[in-house]
Amino acid sequence: MHSDLRLGNDNKEFGFITTQKKLIIYFFVAVIILFFIFNSIFYKLYSANIEQIIIKESNSTVLKTIEFTDIILQSAEYTADIVQGNQTVQEYLIHDENGSSSDSWTEKEFVDTLQSIANNSVKNISSIDLFLNSTHKLYSTDYGAISGIDSKIIEYYQALQVQDVFSLSVEYRKKLTFMSNRNYEQITFIRPFYDLNSGSRVGLIAINIDKYILKNLITRDSDSSSYIFDEKNNVIISSISMQHRKLSRQLESLEGQMNQEEGVLFFDLEGKKQILIYNTSRYSGLKFVTVIPATASLQQMSQLRDSILVLFLLMNILSAGILVILLSGKIYKKVNKLILSMKEVERGNFDITIAHGDRDEFDFMYTSFNNMAGKIKSLFGELYQQKLLQKDAELKLLQSKINPHFIYNIFDNMNWLIQLERYEELESLVDAVSNYYKKSLNVGRDFISISDTIDQLKSYIEIQKIRFRDRFTCSFEFENELLNIQILNFMLQPLVENAICHGIEPKAEKCHISVKGYRTGENVYLCVEDDGMGISVEKLQEINYYFENEQSKSDDYFAITNINMRVKLFYGNEYGLKITSAPSKGTLVTVKLPSVMPAKVEGTNVKTVDR
Hints:
Layout: H1 19-85, H2 87-98, H3 104-120, E1 125-132, E2 137-140, E3 144-146, H4 151-160, E4 167-169, H5 172-175, E5 186-194, E6 201-210, H6 211-218, E7 225-229, E8 235-238, H7 245-254, E9 262-269, E10 272-280, E11 287-293, H8 294-297, H9 299-327, H10 330-346, H11 361-419, H12 423-441, E12 447-449, H13 450-468, E13 472-478, E14 486-488, H14 493-504, E15 511-520, E16 523-530, H15 537-548, H16 558-571, E17 576-582, E18 586-594
Parallel strand pairs: 13-15
Antiparallel strand pairs: 1-2, 1-6, 2-3, 4-5, 5-6, 7-8, 7-11, 9-10, 10-11, 12-14, 15-16, 16-18, 17-18
Helix pairs in contact: 1-9, 10-11, 11-12, 11-16, 12-13
């Protein structure tokens, strides 16, 4: 039968992703992965370069700030030199030494001289203070001459004169509490004051500079923040307000790492990377620190990355459109024809063939497919018949092995009773065996109802009680709806026999055997349980090994492995025996069967039982 299939690109009926769609997906995934790899490498390289540029530019800015600050401080020192060398000032010192400095006109001239020097110096100077040890007076350009100074302030001034060189102080203004109108935010240039005639130290000169002048130098954009540290790593000037306390606390933890004259540090603040650049003034010893958020500096890089992403997405869409057009042409239709034909074979239609007129690779594929479908059809029929015959033969063989095994045990019991001359019990045994085989022969059928199986087991129990007398009791408990189900013959009897011989016989006290049957969901469970000796862990593992490998050649476990193979062979691999046991506590053997029995198999005479 030849049938040419009507084909198209709509493959929804197959329930899988077509090769055409997979190629498009693979293309998109490959391009996107390459994009992200390229973008990641580009971003890392470029961001590293950006960071170096930022560090270089920031360090250059810090150096310029240091340069401007040094100029201001040098101008303060230069102003101190002017005061130190001023003739009027030096003449006043001579008058002071002679005790004539109390003249009011002379003091006024002295203060005016200081104010003139302050006014004519660079405008960064806020005020000039000159303290004289001889009179304990303070001369200030904004307060004039001040006497009667507190003794603690006098001691403070005298203590500041210990250093021979200038020093910077932010505590100086805070000590002069009596100058209420002076700005408290000041940094002061301090050094000893000398009498040039005698060369002796006669006092202290202080050049005051408002902090806002230096703060304006270090203040830049809103993203960065700058600081000036003294030689003890104390912040004396900051470009940020008090709400940036988290950054200030972070800087305190980094103070120990800023032990060089200059350097670069990286740290995280609230999950954002920060760059810290610092450098030290060789003139003043002040350390200048700038903190820049790395994320803000890479904003341009992020914009470039977004532009590249949009460009690549547009390229993907365009390339995918072209790919769809190419794959939807003649080549994919030929592939789709083969796929549809294979689906027909999968459904069991082996009569299908593919017609093709072109002499190309697809002609070879179609011809091979047609030949394969024909061979499969022929082989499938032969194999199906062989499997049925093989299955029936294996069932017959296993069944034939069980029957002699039981007969051997019966004759062994009869021989045992004859030797003990227990003829009355032998007569009862023969009668019980007769009744047992009346049920067991089952009119030559290989399958027996559960109801007849129960009668069969009761006769077997009577046979065994002749030998074991009152060593055990036995109970039967089956759901009524299971009694008419047909099961394999000799399925439960060997399990009861094992319970007696291996569980009850070795145990001294009286035992009990329980035979049950119940249904759960789609399965039926037949159970044989005893409270005898149980099975050791090693033997239970060995039995499970035989179950898993579907072997029945072991003499020790012949009966149970034989039953397990028969169940699996007829009902399927998901069914079979399960054994649970504990030494000295008993054993439970469960047979799992389907609730709907299989259909009739050739060579057997069982029919489907559907409840």
